[in-house]
Amino acid sequence: MRKVYFDHNATTPVHPEVAAAVQPFLGGSFGNPSSIHWAGRDVRKAVEDAREEMAAFYGCRPLEVVLTSSGTEADNLALKGVAYLEGNAGKHIVTSQVEHPAIINTCRFLETQGFRVTYVPVNRQGIVDPESVREALAADTILVSIMAANNETGCLMPIGEIGEIAKGAGILVHTDAVQATGKIPLPWETLPVDLLTFSGHKINGLKGAGGLLVRKGLELSPVVHGGHQERGRRGGTENVVGIVGMGTAFSLLRKNMDAEVAQVRGLRDTFERALFDRIPDLVLNGHPTKRLPNTVNLSFRYVEGEALLLNLDMLGIACSSGSACTSGSMEASPILLAMGADPTDAQGALRFSLGLGNTEEDVSYSVDAVERVVAKLRAMSPLYHPREAM
Ligand SMILES: Cc1ncc(COP(=O)(O)O)c(C=O)c1O
Predict the structure, then answer these.
(1) What is the pLDDT of residues 242-294, one digit of tens each?
(2) Which of 79, 150, 195, 389 has its CB surrounded by the most CB atoms within 10 Å?
(3) Structural domain total, the chain
(4) CA of 342: how far to CAs of 255, 320, 350, in Å?
């Protein structure tokens, strides 16, 4: 059976060059990067070379890259690192209702610790209005954290405008760019943000490696206390394999990102157009254009998203019915509900996220499969009355 992977926002396949680059670190190059003897030196160099690749991709200084175990840890470091910084008197954070659980649940935790959080809404198309961020700012706001792109809908947030507003008020800005990295330009030099999260496994690197860009001069309270690693900002012996893999993934992005984005956008657009041409009662969740080039989130009316997902899985097609972290649950997506989607539409939503390795054949096979499965499920639905019959 053909296998089609349309779930790149959950994770991406490991690039063969990444797999090759990490091989020495699974064998002979086993030293601790903090050791000053021969066994540690080449490993330290590999870690620092990888950091330079990341810095070169964003256009930041290598010292501005703090390596972590994941995007989730980097999000925690951004929020708690600012909140708990010694001397910080402010108690208020502004974020959005559609952030990843790595942000939402960290904010919920901070609320139990005496912080106040404002969760600004999004419009019907899934986008934060910069003015609502401005209105949410208070005298004691310490941080604004708004994602660069949403993982479920792919919606792009106006982080430039939001950043200008917050910085104009002297407030620090964080953006979770886990999904945006590798898909849209994120020039650190001109981006009005102080902190930016990324994750290796969303860009064809390995799982268990991520990082936070921290603007030069900005101090953070560590979240993982320990050794002197990462200049005291994150203790723990480095995940050398994950870091080297992530460095290679970033160097590949620097060479190939534009071409890959153009190719993936073409496939996604063809897929989306064909589904709208062939399937009635389809709703696009998210903005038609202000969206990641690889993502399309659709509600198939009169069909349960979970049923559709399982039927497509049986045909070899992998996609998602919510964010990766909530798939498996039958609850309607909180992201789509926050956008004001009809709860039944939110139940019938599926996210298709394309990426490196997808082909035109994947698209045509999947369009046929989705059309067939939707027709089959609708035929079984007591709620569905085809238009012609009405
Ligand atoms: C927007 C966003 N932030 C953070 C994360 C968490 O990253 P990680 O899986 O590296 O912990 C994800 C993963 O799905 C994400 O989509």
Answers:
(1) 999 999 999 999 999 999 999 999 999 999 999 999 999 999 999 999 999 99
(2) 150
(3) 2
(4) 42, 19, 14
